[in-house]
Amino acid sequence: MAQLEFRSVTREYLLGQQTVRALDDVSLVIPEREFVSVIGPSGAGKSTMLHLMGGLDTPTSGQVLLAGQDLAALDDDGLSDIRRRTVGFVFQFFNLLPMLSAWENVAVPRLLDGASLASVKPRAVELLERVGLADRAEHRPGELSGGQMQRVAIARSLIMDPGVILADEPTGNVDSDTGRQILDLLTGIAHDEGARQSVVMVTHSLDAARCTDRTLLLVDGRMRADGPPAEVLPVFAGEAVPAATDPVATGGPVRSGS
Ligand SMILES: Nc1ncnc2c1ncn2[C@@H]1O[C@H](COP(=O)(O)OP(=O)(O)OP(=O)(O)O)[C@@H](O)[C@H]1O
Ligand SMILES: [Mg+2]
After folding, report:
1. Each residue of 33-56: pLDDT tens digit?
2. Candidates 18, 26, 39, 46: which one to mutate for ligand 1, based on the most atoms within 8 Å of Cβ?
3. Structure pTM?
4. CATH topology of domain 30-56+67-237
5. Beta partners for 20?
6. Which atom of ligand 1 is closest in space to residue 204's alpha carbon?
């Protein structure tokens, strides 16, 4: 079963008299165990897409399905329930709670789900081990580096065993070596034989996109291309040059949007 599906999803924002179409008729299917990158110019609709994927926002038209469940069919409680259980979020600025230790931060989603701190601790510590931070479990975010904070955030995104991990610029605030570690971690999550998790990562880094299985290129809210990064990245490069030298004009197997 697909972890995530968009059927002709459009999201418009009303700004005064003006309508901004942030996402325009986008369809896609994300299967299990796939590491997907989302690239495109600033304002192309990447964050809008990620928010819709996680049920943080609702489409103006079209359908979003998470684990086969149409989000529009759910009431507020159902939506927050599926959001908590089926998606994990990783943000550019980590969004950790400063007064809590690393392991307590990892535990937070389970606490919101009604579990006790003591009962969640073993799993939280195990996840910190998985991201290489077993020795930092008792540290607060202020005592960690940016890369360590992001690894805590990744551990937190895993605690509910979600089908989909959604990451918006997870390497945007760390140096390139640390970015590499974060990418390796996300790759390991998506390709874990024992789990059925997919990772969708918005990124401005073409090097980061190159590490993924599949790249979605958004331009002006539309899906410009969807395929292996080796095929989609040249399309993105071509966006900036005149049509005559556009690599798309040379053909190739890229599924291009119109
Ligand atoms: N709450 C909102 N109200 C009105 N317009 C919005 C809102 N959120 C986003 N937009 C508009 O929708 C478009 C897409 O925005 P989005 O944040 O998805 O872009 P993005 O691809 O994530 O850009 P960036 O790379 O800069 O993060 C932009 O034109 C933006 O101005
Ligand atoms: Mg964005």
Report:
1. 999 999 999 999 999 999 999 999
2. 46
3. 0.90
4. Rossmann fold (3.40.50)
5. 13
6. 25
